Amino acid sequence: MMTLTRSLPALALGTLLAGAAVAQxxxxxxxxxxxxxxxxxxxxxxxxxxxxxxxPPRGITLSEALQLARRYNPAQVQAEQxxxxxxxxxxxAWGAYLPSVSGSGSATRNSQQRVNASSGAPQVxxxxxxxxxxxxxxxxxxxxxxxxxxMRAANATRNLNEAALLQQDYATDLATKQAFFNxxxxxxxxxxxxxxxxxxxxxxxxxxxKLRLGAAVRSDSLTASxxxxxxxxxxxxxxxxxxxAQADLARAIGADGMVAAVADSTLEVRLSSLDTAALxxxxxxxxxxxxxxxxxxxxxxxxxxxxxxYYYPTLSLGASQTWAGAQLPWNAAPLTNIVDSTxxxxxxxxxxxxxxxxxxxxxxxxxxxxxxxxxxxxxxxxANATEAxxxxxxxxxxxxxxxxxxxxxLDAAAAQIDVSRTSVASAQESLRMQQERYRLGASTIVxxxxxxxxxxxxxxxxxxxxxxxxxxxxxxxxxxxxxx
Length: 484
Description:
Oligomer: single chain
Helix content: 55-70%
Order of helices and strands: HHEHHEEHHEHHEEEEHH
CATH superfamily of the largest domain: Outer membrane efflux proteins (OEP)
CATH topology of the largest domain: Outer membrane efflux proteins (OEP)
Radius of gyration: 42 Å
Low-confidence stretches: 1-51
Largest sheet: 4 strands, antiparallel
CATH class of the largest domain: Mainly Alpha
CATH architecture of the largest domain: Up-down Bundle
Distance between the termini: 34 Å
Structural class: alpha+beta
């Protein structure tokens, strides 16, 4: 905000500018300045000029920004990946009802070499081959209700991840809207600063001309110069804020380079009167924060049930089949001679390559003592469930408090818009009168600059109140979990 009290460096800058203005300003008739004229080439800070040497910022609409933010926001991506993990957890819980099957196999060849005890000479025997293959399967018949508890816990965890994604959806949308509206507000505040600089330029020209004609004192020219320098500094700061807002918007949507928000007048349509009681009632069922807290309660209660299942015995059925042979898998089966009743060999036949064995087992396991691990797991799960219920209650209370705050913020922003518009109209008229009075010598430069400051403040307040309303509306939509 521009004030009449300036620092010594600003006064020195104003003095230099005044000297340059007195030396360079051409003589022209004294005419009343038109309020809020915009210079053709407004001042630009060196840093902003350096950034503007690259490609112009990419324009983007609000709907496009929301889509990109949901695609690239790291928290959003993590929430979406948690959905995949939750679905896989449900599939794993279903898999506990199916038998587990495993296979095994081995093949070995051993060389044998011994030393003759009498002669000391080495003796080499034929290599020995062995191979074994097996297949086993088992299925739990009774798990102490653990499978059912794990299935409920997996479904509850999946629902919790979906609720967390819903919460993150609206959190991402709110952050994106805030970045989008902040960029638009910064751009409009640049326009206000440009108009203020143009007005200060006209005041400086008028004061310089009056000083040349002897109708004003030198202090008026110095004061106008200081006001002009201050307006330049404000424009530099406004442009810097706009560049920062463009960079913040680019980061929010995961875009490279600078991004500028595209103006859309339809976004500023006022909401009709809200039924706050009905909206508060609906929010208890749709609010993302409450939905997530409810899902967390269900998940922790299911995990508590699963922990208690370890007190029960388990019963499982298993079976296996094993094949073993005295040769490698790729070798032919050994030949066996066929003899007659006299012992004479009458032919050969290949014997069976493998001999098979099988077994079936029924296993009963009864938990007796495991070093208090079951009790520790139950206490931990119960503590988590108690904490989740407390968080659910707090989420409902926080929702009520946030709704009250959002309703009042929305109403206050709407009222401030109307007040700011009236203030702008009043300040414009007051500045017009002060300009005419100063031109005629009926008022001082202080009165003129005070009126100019009031108009600048009113226009700034109008821009800020308009976007405060939009942000308040976006915050309310994020709380209730749907558009208004």
